[in-house]
Write the structure tokens for this entry.
Amino acid sequence: MSEPTRHAGEPIRVRFGGLGGQGLVTLGAVLAEAGARSGLHVAASQAYGSRARGGATRADVILASEPIDFPHVHQADLLLVLAQEAYELYLPQVAPGGVVLADGFFVKLEERPGVRQHCLAATSAAMEQLGNKVAANFVMLGALLGFGRVVGEEAVGAAMRNLVNKRFLEVNRKAFELGCGLGARLREDTGLREGVGPWQRS
Amino acid sequence: MPKDDSAVKGAQGAGPRPEPQVLMGNYAAAEGALAAGCGFYAGYPITPSSEIMEVLAERLPRQGGVFVQMEDEIASFAAVIGASWAGAKAMTATAGPGLSLMLEGIGYASFTETPLVLVDVQRAGPATGQATRVGSGDVLQVRYGAHGDTCPIALSPWSVQEMYDQVIRAFNLAERYRTPVFVLADEGVGHLRETVVLHRDFELVARVRGNDQPPFGHPDPDGVPPMPIFGDGANLMVTGSTHDAWGFRKVDDAEPHDLLVRRINRKILDHAEDICEVDGRFLDDAEVALVAYGFSGRSALAAVKALRRAGVKVGLLRLKTLWPFPARQVAELGKAVRRLVVPEMNLGQVGGVVRQHVRCDVELLGQVNGEVIEPEAIERKVREVLP
């Protein structure tokens, strides 16, 4: 498989896809704040149904080194997806050369030329190692960081302290670290060398 | 007309400039209200505006203000009117269905010259439509929804920063002109998270009070009378029926009615130059120009930049004020370009108004599918209509 066709410094468009109640909007907010703390221009948006739980939901984040004119995402460079329904809905909106990271617990991958797709055991790991299925969202955020290094890890920690309910901070922090490990291993396995966003670890 | 010397420094004075932070547009609107010295909020939660209420429910009482969740939007708006006459800077926020319920109060507030701020975070209508989806279909309703002749002020933010800045400006305009002011946001901006600086780099307009002058009359036909408040000692009477300069009902006489209706309109229209703000980009050599507002302005700017890279001479006039309509600026633009394109998330509400002010062709790009307009759609439209 080829490396993503992106150049360092270009804006990166991240989409979290799943169902209402899986905590995707929180992930978008955390990633956006972490991006700003990493010195990037950011924009985060979301689309969700009027139900409190269920229904395909997305949270989108743009990370850029220049000011962002149009702040929504209609083609994602990275899709992180936690539900089959959302996977089927958003896969066609992944940019050519884009990457899909899917929670293997919920998603069965299908062929799509020009898009690299990987399954991660996010929900399984959250259940087995943390005893908390709901923390799978932060496992996925960790996987994004470990795999793509789109913002600084410390910046994510600071954003989580600011945005995540204190009662769940500890379990989510552990979930994030667990995900970082999963993402880093995937990165190694796939031989990805460069980061995939405008932020590069110095 | 209140003068600029009635302005005072921001509520907490000008300190060091705060750090940028990432906030949702609705949170920034609430921060703007707090910074402007809002003392009263009454409202009824409705998607996609509820975050404004959520923040103010917690923060306003801590700042010495009053927060009330009312039984519905009709009562909310009535409470805001009452609070304003008790001396508070007062506000509410809602979305289309709530705005419809508030219309009676909006007309009443215009006719009684009650300063207040209403943030309307527009969603996809008509009726309850799609609660979580975007639209900008309330534009003409805020202009013409109230029966009788009124002349509201409406601002249109395109970023999280402007949600903050324009709510502050809305309070200032409300006090300066003694009138309801709308911040006509949309779900796209209300739920957007981006970087904002909650600066204190502004002045606040203090209400001109006065117990010994007529509260509803002015020697100038476009003047703004001082506003006494209940509890200050004036014999004050506020009525939605036609009233003379001292507030006495005049429900059969021609002259006081004519005088009052004309003045509440002229006090806004005669000061359009002070109220109307526009933002022009790439207009110097443009042959085609986009006229856009709110979130669609962001789509339009991205489209303009993409078209410019391809050598197309296109520019953007973004309306930061929608009402009173920036008629002079739009008319001048209409003379300078060959064609105008108006992208908006309705079926041409502002496009139709633009047509009233220019002789050149005006192309409408209306989208009502509950999604924001993609820059590519605007690019295609511009290429289609290139002279």
